[in-house]
Amino acid sequence: MLLGAVGGKLRPLQSDVFAVTQAMLALPLRCLPGTRFRRGLHARKRIMAALREEMAARNHHHHHHDLLSVLMQRRQLGHPDALTEDQILDNMLTLIIAGQVTTATAITWMVKYLSDNRLIQDKLRAEAFRLELKGDYSLTMQHLNAMDYAYKAVKESLRMATIVSWFPRVALKDCQVAGFHIKKDWILNIDARSLHYDPDVFDNPTVFDPSRFDEEGEGDDAKLGRAQQQKRRLLVFGAGGRTCLGMNHAKIMMLIFLHRLLTNFRWEMADDDPPLRNGNVPRLKNDAPSAHTHPQFLIMFQIN
């Protein structure tokens, strides 16, 4: 999601992306030095400069096959609905923020939850080793679809972490919700975290339990099992016409990461109860440093 940035370019770009996300809900104090909003504006300028530099480089080398290249090619070919350069830049920034920060944070929490639940971790590891990988050990969609328990662990991690904890929406017409009269054009804020931790919706909501999604079924909520009702009430990626476009991409990334981690390492958290970092998404202040054991190595790393 960071356009292949490596080495010395990656860390500053990651820091700038985080600064922009921090500024999104900050007070818009544009002219006051040192504010979170002003730092975000400067970070956005640096990201845009890096994207323009990347676009200039790609004008001479067409070996990339990603969204940025597709948008650039449509513009170069004069396609009637092609985006302007500024529109391309804004779309890429949106994708980087929406896909890099949220998914990386979700993976961090997943590692933490599995470190705290060794029996679940072992069950996931057994499932991962049952996959028959061939050749270069690449995972296919067939493999991912066979990771049933891992998929439930991903959903449970997303529920407990609730990376995006609220969803602002505009009422399209007058309506009644739980006895409250909502008028057309009112702006509503859906609190996903409260729903995900409501004991009337999820049994033992503070317990990490992928098996809560074991039951499957079809039909109205009144006819569904408890697990299927809970599945329908997950608001991790929103709901309806504005459901997150990157939903399946994020789940696939988490499944691939989880498989690689489970089949190569065992791990434990360096801090069992790390503090939280203030921000728009719930992040661990120490970025989840972990001790990883390999058959021949002991590795320390942290997820950013």
What labels would you give this structure?
304 residues, mainly alpha, Cytochrome p450, 2 domains, 9 strands, 11% strand, globular, disordered C terminus, transmembrane helix, iron, oxidoreductase, oxidoreductase activity, acting on paired donors, with incorporation or reduction of molecular oxygen
Secondary structure: elements and pairs:
Blueprint: H1 10-23, H2 36-58, H3 67-76, H4 85-116, H5 118-130, H6 141-146, H7 148-161, E1 166-170, E2 175-177, E3 180-182, E4 187-191, H8 192-196, H9 226-232, H10 247-264, E5 266-269, E6 276-277, E7 283-284, E8 290-293, E9 298-301
Antiparallel strand pairs: 1-4, 2-3, 5-8, 6-7, 8-9
Helix pairs in contact: 1-2, 2-4, 4-7, 4-10, 5-7, 7-10
Structural notes for this entry:
- This protein has 304 residues and is mainly alpha-helical.
- The chain folds into two domains: 83 residues, no CATH class; 177 residues, Cytochrome p450.
- The chain contains ten helices and nine strands.
- The strands form four sheets. It has a three-stranded antiparallel sheet. It has a two-stranded antiparallel ribbon with strand order 1-4. The protein has a two-stranded antiparallel ribbon with strand order 2-3.
- Strand 8 and strand 9 form a beta hairpin.
- The longest helix has 32 residues.
